[in-house]
Amino acid sequence: MRVDVEFHGATLILGHGRVSRRILHDFTHVFPSGSVTAIVGPSGSGKTSLLRAILGEVSPTQGRILVGRRKIATLSASERSRLRRSTVTTIHQDLNLVESLTAWENVLFGLRLAGIKNAHATADEWLERLGLDGVRNMFPATLSGGEQQRVAIARSLAGPHSVVLADEPTGALDETNTRIVIDQFKHFSATGKCCIVVTHDPLVAAGADQVLTFHDGILQ
């Protein structure tokens, strides 16, 4: 099923009164299925808040945000939770790996929760795709920061979701592994899915299908 992410005249203001701040201003754009989009710009320009708005964690003060033609602001808390389980997944900067599970088990755990058939083979495939065969039986605490980051990426890309939101997913990676991750984002999107990546990494931006540059909440 095609799942586009759409912004229509969306303005996002965080805070109230004199301490309020405009994070996004009159933003209109469609992030289509089958694409990788890089979101770039200086710190504080609204990039991460854009991802939070897609998840419904913050709501626009005007305009609409739709995921698969569903208006996020009208969803109940339980509907947003179901959306995150079934349609939209996030690769956070803090990774959220389960420390008591091995690298392989971390990927497998999400697949089992989603009821994915052939979960074992799928976990094997994505660990191999991210160059993690050699650490599959290691626990997060024994992995390097870059290895942990790739496990988190494998876990998200392996799942059933149609949209992946990634916040600085290559921050701990060298150039070789960054290129591996870019290739897997492209593989993911080539199956008709949508990948939106907040990044400061020029390699990631160069590998994306489209690049959006923000400054003070405004698309440049």
UniProtKB/TrEMBL annotation:
One of its GO terms (molecular function) is ATP hydrolysis activity. The keyword ATP-binding applies. Keywords: ATP-binding, Nucleotide-binding. This is ATP-binding cassette domain-containing protein. SUPFAM superfamilies: P-loop containing nucleoside triphosphate hydrolases. Pfam families: ABC_tran (PF00005). The keyword Nucleotide-binding applies. It comes from the Bacteria.
